[in-house]
Design a protein that fits this description.
Number of helices: 0
Distance between the termini: 35 Å
Structural class: mainly beta
Helix content: under 10%
Strand order of the largest sheet: 1-21-24-25
Largest sheet: 4 strands, antiparallel
Radius of gyration: 25 Å
Length: about 500
Amino acid sequence: MKKLQLIVALLVMGIFFVIGCKKKEDDNNGGNNGGSGASVLVITTGARSINPDEKVTYEAVVVDASGNATPATGVTWSVSNSLGAFAGNVFSPSVSGSGVITASATVNGKSLSAKVPVGIYLPAVFSVVPSAIIWTTDAGTIPLTAVYLGTGSVSGYSYSSSDASVVSVDGSGNVSFHKEGECVITVTANGISDNNKVYVPVLVVGIPSEPLPVVRVAVNPVGAEIFRNETAAFTAKAYNSANAEVGATFTWSSQDPAIATVDGNGTVTAVGLGNTIITATASGIVGQAEVNVLPDTTIIVTPTMASISAGATKQFTAQAYAVNHSTKALTAISMPAGLTWEVPVTGISVFDIATVNSTGLVTMSSSAMQGMSTVVVAHVSSPTIEPGAALIMVSDCDCGSGTAGVDHINVTGGTTLNISLMSGPVTVTAVAVDASDTPVAGAALSMCSDNMAVCSVDATSMEIIPTGPGTAVITICNGSVSTQITVNVTL
């Protein structure tokens, strides 16, 4: 599959802006175009949020004083925060987080640079458009739009900024830009405990001062969520270095016509599932908007998040749902033929931590390291049905080498626990004993959950903390000796 999602995609942004085209002393973002030369470097790929296993090919052009764009040559690409590495212009992420992609080149003896933000995150259970933003302090506010296609109940969304002095966001998701800098907006789906956060990387830049016909192109709206065969109308405006609107002729394009096409008037038609970028270009400067094409049918994997110990197994199930175009509500339907289960393979043994069989039974590698994660995907051979995926993590249950004399573990109250989501933490009383049921001195116990969407644990205080409705299995262990508690959490 092209994308490994829990429900909907992560991708691209709302607007492209030239950056690094001011004099060095005026550029807080580190760009340097060697003084007042009229050439600027433009990253046409735009701002992006991508999956950890996704590679992105970045492109850049040089725009001259007449607004003519030519492909940039001799470009050096880099990324901040050690998020990954470039092979030529192809970026491969290695860790999760947000940062900035920088392109640098020398043109006619002058050093040019440009920057765009990038976010690398595992998919959440809902999507946000735009999913990455590059903007200016005086280009107005933009709204964030969240769409959830799931069986849970979202009671609204919460928004927060990692640096409100750079970017602030109100309770409705309207984003305001205050000064140049970087930050991350966190969007939380309230009422959902499983993978309920989306992170939107933001880069705020100043107005370029180069004498170009156009220095900024804004596309409106900044994003759209539509279904296959539906259309959406986009418009574009061009601005000069004084931030005044100027007349311009726009060339419209789609970065992935297999997902959405666009005509010369900015009318977008949804073709296939996924996300793509729609671009409007004037005098070499590119403005962009994100289009997310939603599925008529989606597959949801249960549980949607699970913690599995090294060498252990976990059964997953899949259910198909029809999506209501108006309400986004789901209706269960029969699973289409040809369901296939898959765990992505990287070819690097340390990252290939799990396998899955044809029935959805996941087996964690015995050598998998604690804290690592991947996804298990359920899909059918149809371009119109959205695949389902679940996050799987290596359990943090460190059972240690074991204490001599421990034969089994006694749990007060039995091995089934029924609790309410509102009950708060529940303390487990357990003790490691020998074959005669005598407690073994110094025998410490560890505890972990196989489904943190239902309950997490605090091994220090031996507490089970309910996080959502459902069933989870709690493992309590000392070395190779263990016992399990089935926890049923209700609303």
